[in-house]
Design goal:
Residues 234-321 form the HTH arsR-type domain. The protein has helices at 8-13, 22-34, 39-49, 57-63, 83-91, 95-106, 114-119, 123-141, 145-175, 241-250, 252-263, 268-274, 279-291, 310-317; strands at 2-5, 15-16, 180-182, 185-188, 194-197, 204-208, 226-230, 266-267, 295-300, 303-308. The chain has 321 residues and is of the alpha/beta class. Among the domains are: 2-17 and 147-230, no CATH class; 241-317, Arc Repressor Mutant, subunit A. The strands form three sheets. A four-stranded mixed beta sheet has the order 3-4-1-5, with helices on one face. β9 (295-300) and β10 form a beta hairpin. α9 (145-175) crosses α14. It is globular, with a radius of gyration of 21 Å.
């Protein structure tokens, strides 16, 4: 059982992540890749990405066993939830952190020889690990990231409404089927017995796409407190049917432009290049999407920067109301 101990200050500082955490989703997706749980939801994704899994992913699975502890340093806290920041934080992991986490991991399994260099903080070993995360994410998660973002965005909006309607008591009661809230302690089913004392730091609640079963947190209670918990899924989310449906609804070019902007904010010229269309067409399609409330646009120096809205993300996720 996991017991999270709150103070009034902790409740005031507890927040819900508005976006998925790339480093956590990378780690959790490694569990989904090698386990057989969630067949209806994840089997399509597993089948589609297995031929694309980079060879360097072996470095990650050495540190993320199918069950039990995974090294805390693989999921560093960053102020902005983007892969680049997570990779940079991983590259800057202090030697003491590396040694501590690898020592804990070695109690549960025999570690390969290359981890000795990692424990010593050798730059080449740390960079090799960060490159493996980058390559795995690019091959196995990036093609689906717009959908992942959309579902987490929807869950964030739903839970923010729960807090507005009934406070944290309502939110904690809805967080997970095993959640039991009796101030000042939130109890959740967990593989091991663990207490997390927030000590006035608050709690980062992270709705997670690849989390399955029980919620997850860090082993080291001195790190920034975080709780990952699973969200709902639609069957077939990883297939191409949604892309075809979106093209039928919006038209092929407009759907491609929306997906391009959904990947990350971009200028009109970037939209044209990445969506493989002309500059006038990209501008016209972005204007139509803006009029429909699916994207927003703002002046950015000499360019116009386009960003997707919550409604646009929901449409890409295939769950617009």
């Amino acid at each position: 059982m996991l017991r999270i101990h709150f103070s009034p200050e902790d409740l005031a500082r507890t927040r819900i992540s508005p976006r998925p955490h790339p480093m956590w989703e990378t780690l959790l997706s490694l569990y989904r890749l090698r386990r057989r749980d969630g067949e209806l939801v994840f089997d399509g994704w597993r089948r589609s990405i297995r031929p694309k899994v980079p060879a360097g992913t072996r470095l990650l699975t050495d540190l993320v066993p199918q069950n039990g502890y995974a090294a805390d340093f693989l999921t560093p806290a960053t102020p902005d939830l983007c892969l680049a920041s997570g990779l940079e934080a991983l590259r800057r992991t202090p030697k003491r952190r590396l040694r501590t986490d690898l020592s804990i991991l070695s109690r549960e399994r025999t570690l390969p020889s290359w981890t000795a260099m990692l424990a010593d903080g050798r730059t080449e070993a740390v960079n090799r690990l960060a490159d493996a995360v980058d390559q795995y994410f690019t091959a196995c998660l990036a093609p689906y990231w717009t959908h992942v973002r959309g579902r987490v965005d929807q869950e964030h909006a739903r839970q923010a409404q729960l807090v507005a309607d009934g406070g944290f008591e309502r939110l904690f009661g809805d967080l997970h089927p095993s959640a039991r809230w009796c101030y000042p302690v939130l109890e959740l089913d967990y593989p091991v017995d663990q207490d997390l004392h927030l000590g006035g730091r608050g709690l980062q609640l992270v709705p997670s796409f690849f989390c399955q079963g029980t919620p997850m947190t860090l082993l080291d209670g001195d790190l920034d407190p975080v709780l990952l918990y699973p969200i709902g899924h639609s069957v077939g989310w990883s297939t191409t049917d949604r892309t075809r449906s979106l093209a039928s609804l919006l038209g092929r070019t407009r759907a491609r432009v929306l997906e391009t902007i959904g990947d990350r904010p971009c200028t009109t010229s970037e939209v044209a290049r990445r969506a493989d269309t002309s500059l006038p067409t990209a501008s016209q399609q972005a204007s139509a999407l803006r009029a429909a409330g699916l994207v927003t646009s703002r002046q950015n120096g000499q360019s116009v920067l386009h960003s997707i809205t919550s409604l646009g993300l929901a449409l890409l996720a295939g769950n617009a109301q």
